[in-house]
Amino acid sequence: MNRICLSMRYGAILVSLLLAPMYLSCADRSQNRTVSVLYAGSLATVMENGLGPAFAKATGYEYQGEAQGSLAAARMIRDRLRSPDVFISADPSVNESVLMGSKNGDLVTWFMTLASSQLVLAYNPNSKFAAKFQEAAAGTIPWYEVLKTPGVRFGRGDPRTDPKGYRTLFLFNLAGKHYNLPELPGLIGDPLNPDQVFPEIVLLARVQSGQFDAGIFYKHEVVAHKLPFVSFPPEISLGDPKLSAFYAQATYTTPSGEHVRGAPILFTITIPNTVRNKAAAEALVRFLLSSNDQLKEFGFGTVDHRVGGDAMQIPTELRSFSSGKYEP
Predict the structure, then answer these.
(1) For the chain, N or C: smaller number of CB within 10 Å?
(2) Packing angle between helix 52-59 and helix 278-289, nearest 10 degrees?
């Protein structure tokens, strides 16, 4: 009886060893159907409820996304805390300063501009100050006068981790010049004012829940969440490429030492050298570069897909999307 049992055990082990490659192959195939994407926090709704599922439906790949402030996300890649197949940033300079070049291990060698956006002042429709924000949206009173109203609770992004955070600083700096009101930047106080500064997703939730009356967001965010908003003139919205020289007058240096300068808002896409599933990554990049109509529906502006870095490092199948070199 012992010999029979021993024989059966050896037989089971042998079968397991023979089947193991098949199981591993199936697991590998399953893994290779998934593309991991690390993206700017402002894209959470767009990616999770829109473009991500649309990509999965169109291609059969599985989509897995994570939202982080672009600066924080790039640092995670650089510090090997994340290894995404695709990285989508809210600012080209994030790639250039944190991920590109030998000092950053050449983790990114190229990127393409994907879409544009602009800053707006979104507000809670149930705020007790909603009527004032509506007047500002109609142009009957200046938006900054509403923010001066006693009791208005106003929030903004974190300039240490989020391009929208330092772009908000640029907006108020440029507003002081545009309106010839040098006191306007004082409305936000210290760049890291703890009464105003919150992570992207937290800030949006605070405005939606009524904890804040208003906040500075990208237009595509408020379109996706159906929040009412006040538009800024192009001179301060960072949404007009023709005003690049004026935007460049505003600068900020993060506590970590990244020096950033005002520029038109551009989102970029790349495949970092952390990629584990190249086929899925290329499929997603191709899908997004071909999705101008969907991007418009979400409130983005469409742009020529210009290349930063080494164009020869772009996968062959994606090179046809390039429309020239990106110039800051």
Answers:
(1) N
(2) 110
